[in-house]
Design goal:
By secondary structure, this protein is an alpha+beta fold. The chain has one domain: Nucleotidyltransferase, domain 5 (2-Layer Sandwich). 45% of the residues lie in helices and 18% in strands. The chain contains 4 helices and 4 strands; from the N terminus they run αβββααβα. The protein has a 4-stranded mixed beta sheet. α3 runs parallel beside α4. The longest helix is centred in the first third of the chain and has 21 residues.
């Protein structure tokens, strides 16, 4: 990622997170790397992590999910939604962390919604 791309992403992050912080609600934040994807549900203003899941967890790595990062992102979305249900969380704001709503980010969000989390 070159410097211009990084600045553009940071600008998108600041714009979207500013709107989420103004709402003062719980939010589901996504971070992705070239190999893995992470999801965390934060309390308002990011004060505490209430639920989290990632593609690095042994629980997901031992499952036969199949090839592809999108399938892994769907599994992470399901897992974070299940953990949120256990904590009594039903609705969150979706923070895509400046990434485009496409591919793995979209798959994670849709899987979380399919498992009962309102994003």
């Amino acid at each position: 990622m070159n410097l211009r791309q990084q600045r553009n992403r940071e600008r998108r992050v600041n714009r979207s997170r500013g709107k989420i912080f103004d709402l003062g609600t719980l939010y589901l934040s996504v971070h992705r790397t070239s190999q893995h994807i992470y999801a965390q549900i934060f309390a308002p203003r990011g004060t505490a992590v209430l639920a989290a899941a990632s593609s690095l967890e042994a629980e997901l790595r031992n499952k036969k999910i199949g090839p592809g990062k999108i399938k892994m992102a769907q599994a992470v979305g399901q897992l974070v939604a299940e953990r949120a249900k256990i904590k009594g969380i039903t609705a969150v704001a979706f923070d895509r962390s400046g990434y485009k709503y496409h591919g793995r980010v979209k798959a994670l969000a849709e899987a979380a919604r399919a498992n009962g989390l309102v994003c």
